[in-house]
Design brief:
The complex is a heterodimer. Chain A folds into two domains: 114 residues, no CATH class; 58 residues, Arc Repressor Mutant, subunit A (Orthogonal Bundle), CATH 1.10.10. Helices cover 76% and strands 0% of the residues of chain A. Chain A is built from nine helices and no strands. In chain A, helix 3 packs across helix 4. In chain B, strands 1, 2, 3, 4, 5 and 6 form a six-stranded mixed beta sheet that branches. By secondary structure, chain B is α/β, with parallel strands linked by helices. Chain B contains 30 helices and six strands. In chain B, helix 19 runs antiparallel to helix 20 and helix 21 runs antiparallel to helix 22. The chains are: A mainly alpha, B alpha/beta. At the A-B interface, helix 2, helix 3, helix 5, helix 6 and helix 8 of A face helix 1, helix 3 and helix 4 of B.
C-alpha cells in the first residue's frame, strides 16, 4: 500500500477537491452499489450511502481521528457497508451485525450522520426551489452579511432589503415545514 | 406559527451572536420560558448551519453533484436506438445492408426528400411569429372612494409592460375607457384589436391587500392565466413584480432574463409610499389638470412631499412632483413679480434633477426632465431626455408625445405629426395625440384637415375645448362664417383664448374693429383687411409686420424655432410669395428651419430605429 497515494484521497476530501472526489466516485461507488443492490437496496440508496460515507470520513479527518491502516478504497467500502447495515436495521427493525473496522461503534454517531444528511438534502432542495433573487438574499444573510450590505449588493433600499429578507426566509421555512419529509424528520 | 419580522430579526441576531450582553440575557430567558420560541430558534440555527457556505456544505454540494451524474447503467441486452445503422455480423454487400432493415431506406431516401422539400417550399419560408398585443384594463377597487388605487396599479403595470419591445401594449386612454363597461372581455379585446386582455381587482383591508388578476386570450375567450395574491399592504410591490412576471411568462411561455430585468423594480417603495404617490398623481392628472385649482395643486404637492419624506430615494415621487410643478409652470403665464412662479420653477428643477440622479434609466423620469427643459426653453437638453424616454419605453405613447411636443415647438411640424400618429396608433383615444394632430395640421395651414380632425374628436368628446377652439379658428380662416359662429357658444373660456378680433369680425363689431386698427399693430390690421377683402391694405400691413419681424430677427435665437412651414403653406400669404420683402423673410426662416432640421434627426429616422 502506497501511504502517500492513500492519504491523497483523504486530503482531497478535506480540501473538497472535485477531481479527487470524482476519482473516488469512479473507483469506489460501483463496488458499494453492487453490495447494496445485493442487500435489498438500489442505486439511489447506494448514492446516499456513498455520500454519507465520504462525509463521515470528512468529519473524522477534521477531528484528526483518522489514521489509515488499510487502503482508502477498502476503508470507504467498510464505512458504507456499516451505514447501509444501520439503515437496513432501522428500516427492518432487525438487529444486524455491524463491522468494527470503522472504529465507530456508537449508535448516535450513525444516527446523527444520517439525520443531518436527510435534513441537508431537504433544506437545500427547498432552497434551490426559491426564486433566484430570494436565494441570493438568503445566501448573503446566511453568510453573515448585514442588511446594509445586502441592500447595497442587490440595489435595494435598506428597508426593502429587510422586508425582502424576511419574506424570503418565511417562504423557505414554510416550504420546509410543509414537506412530509420534514415532518418525519422531526416526529 | 408565523413570527413577525422583528422577532425573526432578533433570532437572527441571536444566532449570529450579535446580541449585546443585556439583550442576550433577556432573550435567553425568553427562550427558556417559551417552548415555541425555543423551537423556532433551533430551526433557524439549523437552517443557517445547512445553508451557509461552510466547507462541509460545499463538500456536500459537490458530492450531490457527483451523485446526480451517476445513472443506472443500460442493461447489456438493450440495443441502442441506432443499432439498425450497423451491418449485422458477416454482411459485406452494401445492397444487402441497405435493404436489410426498413429504416435503412432513409439513407437513400433522405437526400431525395430534402431536394423535394426545397423545391416545394412555400414562397415565405417562415411564418412570422405574431407579436402579442395586450390591453390592461383598470383594476376594479372594492372601495369606490379609493378607485385611484386600482387605476394607478393597472397604469403602473401597463407602463412597465410598455418597456418590452417584443410586446405591443394598447394605450391607457383607450383601455381605461372600458372602465365600468358591461362589455365582455372578448368584445373589449375585439374593439381594441388586441390579442390578450388583462383585468383584475384590488381590495384593501387594514394593512393587507388582495389582488386578483386574469389574462384572457381574446381569440377564443379562454383564460390563459389567473392568480390571487394576498400580501401586507407594505409589500404591494411584490405582488406587482410577481404579477408582471406571470403575465409575461404566460404570453411568451418563458421569461427571459432581459425581460425580467425590464419589468422588475429592484427598489420598490413600501405600500404606504406607493399609495401616497398614486393619490398625488391621481390628483395632479385627473383633478388639477382639469380644474387648475390651487387647492388641487396644493393637495397633490402635499402628498408628494409625504411620499418623499417617507422614502427620499423614491425617484418616481420626485418625478411626479416635478411634473406637477411643470403643469403649474405652463398653466400660469408670467406676471410681474410672480414670486410663486419663480419658487415653483426652482422646486421643479430640483425635483427633476433628484429624480434623474435616483433613476437615470426610468422612462417617466426622463420624460419629465424632457418637459422641464422644453418649457425652460432648452430644446437640446429636452431632446436628449425625450429620446431616452422613447428608447427605454417605445411602446408608451407618452414617450412619442414628448418628442412630438418638442418638434412642434421647433417648427418641425411634419415630424411632430409623425410622432403624434405613432402615439395614436398605440392609443387611439390619447387626448394629447389628438390635440397634437390638431395643432400640427393647423400650423401647417391645413385648415380643412384641422376641421376633419376636430370634428372626429368631438364625436368622442363633444366638449373638448382644444377641438372646439381650433374648429372655430379653422372655420374662421376658411371664411366659413356661420359654422364658426355656431361653434363659439360651446367654447367655455373664450375670453382667455385671444379670439376677440376674430369674434368682432364675425359679429361685425365695428367699434372693436376700429379700435384694433387704431392700435397700429400691423398683424391685427392684416387680419382685419384680409377678412374685409381689402387686398392692397392687407399686403401693406403684412409687409410692415414682416419688416418689424426681420428688424427683430438679429436677436432671435435659432433655439426659438422656425415659422418657415407656417409661412410657405399659408394660402392667405400665397400672393406675397413673389414680393422681395416676403422672400427675404422666407429666406431667413428657411435658414432657421434647415439648421433645426439638420440638428435634430427626422422623426421617420427615429421611429424606424
Amino acid at each position: 500500500m502506497d501511504i502517500a497515494i492513500e492519504n491523497s484521497f483523504l486530503q482531497g476530501i478535506a480540501e473538497n477537491d472535485y477531481s479527487v472526489l470524482q476519482k473516488i466516485y469512479q473507483t469506489s461507488l460501483p463496488e458499494v452499489t453492487k453490495y447494496i443492490k445485493n442487500n435489498s437496496g438500489g442505486l439511489d440508496d447506494a448514492k446516499d450511502v456513498f455520500q454519507e460515507g465520504i462525509l463521515a470520513i470528512y468529519n473524522k479527518i477534521k477531528k484528526e481521528e483518522l489514521v489509515l491502516t488499510t487502503t482508502f478504497h477498502a476503508y470507504l467500502f467498510s464505512v458504507c457497508k456499516n451505514i447501509w447495515l444501520k439503515k437496513l436495521r432501522s428500516k427492518n427493525n432487525k438487529v444486524l451485525p455491524l463491522s468494527t473496522t470503522w472504529g465507530l461503534t456508537e449508535e448516535n454517531e450513525y444516527e446523527e450522520l444520517m439525520l443531518k444528511s436527510r435534513k441537508w438534502k431537504l433544506f437545500n432542495q427547498k432552497f434551490s426551489a426559491l426564486a433566484e433573487e430570494c436565494r441570493k438574499v438568503l445566501q448573503m444573510l446566511f453568510n453573515g452579511q448585514s442588511g446594509k450590505e445586502i441592500a447595497s449588493e442587490m440595489g435595494y433600499t435598506e428597508d426593502y432589503a429587510k422586508r425582502k429578507k424576511y419574506k424570503c426566509k418565511l417562504s423557505l421555512m414554510d416550504s420546509i415545514r410543509k414537506d412530509p419529509e420534514y415532518k418525519s424528520l422531526t416526529a | 406559527m408565523e413570527f413577525p419580522q422583528e422577532i425573526i430579526e432578533l433570532i437572527e441576531q441571536y444566532v449570529n451572536g450579535q446580541l449585546k450582553a443585556e439583550s442576550l440575557e433577556r432573550f435567553e430567558k425568553l427562550i427558556e420560558e417559551d417552548i415555541v420560541l425555543a423551537s423556532e430558534v433551533e430551526f433557524q440555527k439549523e437552517m443557517q448551519a445547512f445553508l451557509t457556505d461552510s466547507p462541509e456544505n460545499e463538500l456536500r454540494k459537490n458530492l450531490q453533484m457527483l451523485s446526480d451524474q451517476v445513472v443506472e447503467p443500460k442493461k447489456d441486452d438493450e440495443k441502442a436506438w441506432f443499432w439498425w445503422l450497423f451491418p449485422a455480423e458477416g454482411t459485406t454487400n452494401v445492397l444487402d445492408w441497405l435493404l436489410g432493415h426498413p429504416a435503412r431506406h432513409l439513407v437513400w431516401l433522405a437526400p431525395l426528400l430534402l431536394v423535394a422539400g426545397w423545391w416545394l417550399r412555400p414562397s415565405d419560408t417562415a411564418l412570422p411569429v405574431p407579436v402579442p398585443y395586450i390591453a390592461v384594463l383598470p383594476f376594479s377597487d372594492a372601495q369606490k372612494e379609493q378607485a385611484y388605487f386600482g387605476d394607478g396599479f393597472a397604469e403602473e403595470i401597463l407602463l412597465t409592460l410598455s418597456k418590452l419591445q417584443d410586446l405591443k401594449v394598447a394605450g391607457q386612454t383607450a383601455s381605461f375607457s372600458f372602465k365600468n363597461t358591461t362589455s365582455t372581455i372578448v368584445e373589449i379585446g375585439d374593439q381594441l384589436e388586441v390579442t390578450h386582455v388583462l383585468k383584475g381587482s384590488v381590495s384593501r383591508q387594514d394593512k393587507t391587500i388582495q389582488v386578483t388578476a386574469q389574462l384572457v386570450n381574446v381569440e377564443n375567450g379562454y383564460q390563459v392565466w389567473s392568480d390571487e395574491y394576498e400580501e401586507a399592504l407594505v409589500d404591494v410591490f411584490d405582488i406587482q413584480n410577481e404579477l408582471l412576471q406571470n403575465v409575461v411568462q404566460s404570453l411568451f411561455d418563458k421569461l427571459s432574463p432581459a425581460q425580467k430585468a425590464k419589468i422588475i423594480s429592484p427598489t420598490p417603495p413600501t405600500g404606504e409610499v406607493y399609495d401616497l404617490f398614486l393619490r398625488a398623481k391621481h390628483i395632479h392628472k385627473n383633478l388639477y389638470k382639469s380644474s387648475y385649482s390651487p387647492t388641487d395643486f396644493l393637495d397633490s404637492e402635499k402628498l408628494f412631499f409625504q411620499a418623499i419624506e417617507l422614502n427620499p430615494n423614491y425617484a418616481l415621487a420626485h418625478a411626479g412632483l416635478a411634473d406637477l410643478y411643470d403643469s403649474y409652470w405652463v398653466q400660469n403665464e408670467p406676471k410681474e413679480e410672480d414670486a410663486d412662479r419663480e419658487k415653483y420653477k426652482q422646486r421643479m428643477m430640483q425635483a427633476a434633477k433628484t429624480a434623474l440622479q435616483l433613476a437615470p434609466e426610468n422612462a417617466y423620469v426622463n420624460q419629465v426632465n424632457g418637459y422641464v427643459q422644453h418649457h425652460l426653453n432648452d430644446p437640446t437638453a429636452a431632446y436628449q431626455y425625450f429620446l431616452k424616454s422613447y428608447e427605454i419605453s417605445p411602446n408608451n405613447p407618452e414617450s412619442s408625445m414628448g418628442l412630438s411636443n418638442l418638434y412642434l415647438g421647433l417648427g418641425l411640424h411634419e415630424d411632430a405629426l409623425l410622432f403624434a400618429e405613432q402615439a395614436m396608433a398605440i392609443d387611439p383615444l390619447f387626448r394629447s395625440a389628438w390635440a397634437m394632430q390638431i395643432y400640427a395640421n393647423f400650423y401647417l395651414s391645413r385648415w380643412e384637415k384641422t376641421v376633419d380632425i376636430c370634428e372626429s374628436f368631438l364625436e368622442i368628446d363633444p366638449n373638448d375645448q382644444t377641438a372646439l377652439e381650433y374648429l372655430f379658428r379653422a372655420y374662421f380662416l376658411l371664411n366659413q362664417k356661420e359654422k364658426a359662429l355656431n361653434v363659439l357658444p360651446k367654447i367655455t373660456n373664450v375670453e382667455t383664448l385671444g379670439l376677440d378680433l376674430e369674434i368682432a369680425l364675425l359679429q361685425a363689431d365695428s367699434s372693436y374693429i376700429q379700435n384694433s386698427l387704431m392700435e397700429h399693430n400691423p398683424n391685427l390690421a392684416f387680419a382685419v383687411y384680409t377678412y374685409q377683402g381689402a387686398k392692397d391694405k392687407a399686403a401693406i400691413a403684412y409687409q410692415q409686420a414682416t419688416n418689424d419681424y426681420l428688424k427683430d430677427a438679429s436677436s432671435k435665437s435659432v433655439k426659438e424655432g422656425s415659422y418657415y412651414l407656417d409661412h410657405i403653406n399659408n394660402p392667405r400669404l400665397t400672393e406675397f410669395q413673389t414680393q422681395d420683402w416676403f422672400q427675404a423673410m422666407l429666406a431667413f426662416e428657411k435658414r432657421q428651419y434647415d439648421f433645426l432640421a439638420e440638428s435634430y434627426p427626422r422623426a421617420s429616422e427615429i421611429l424606424e430605429r
